[in-house]
Design goal:
By secondary structure, this protein is mainly α. It is built from 8 helices and no strands.
Length: 131
Amino acid sequence: MIHAQAALNQNDALKAIEILQVSTPFELGTSRPDTFIPTLCPVYLRGEAFLLANRGSEAAVEFQKILDHRGIVKNELIGALAHLQLGRAYAMQGDRVKARAAYQDFLTLWKDADPDIPIFSAAKAEYAKLN
């Protein structure tokens, strides 16, 4: 995950996707209750890499995978952020209806968030452009 994030930080989406392929067979594994091991983070990073590579449909599959496995994600931040990223993936595909729904889900989850949080204000601005 660290190498993939480094590749994303360098805007090298294809390298990040390649690095994360090795984790695919294990991505639905869960962490032990006595340790903190982020679950489904490789899936989230792969989704981000697909977004960076302008591959919206593949990104949507990854973020939907997170939403489909909420029991694994529990209360990790990527559970909420997957809604936003799914909205971005649908917007990239030109599916405004699904994009609006995903953005609404994210904004509902974050309705009490500090309005100055950059990702929250960006999400509100992106959602406004969809309407």
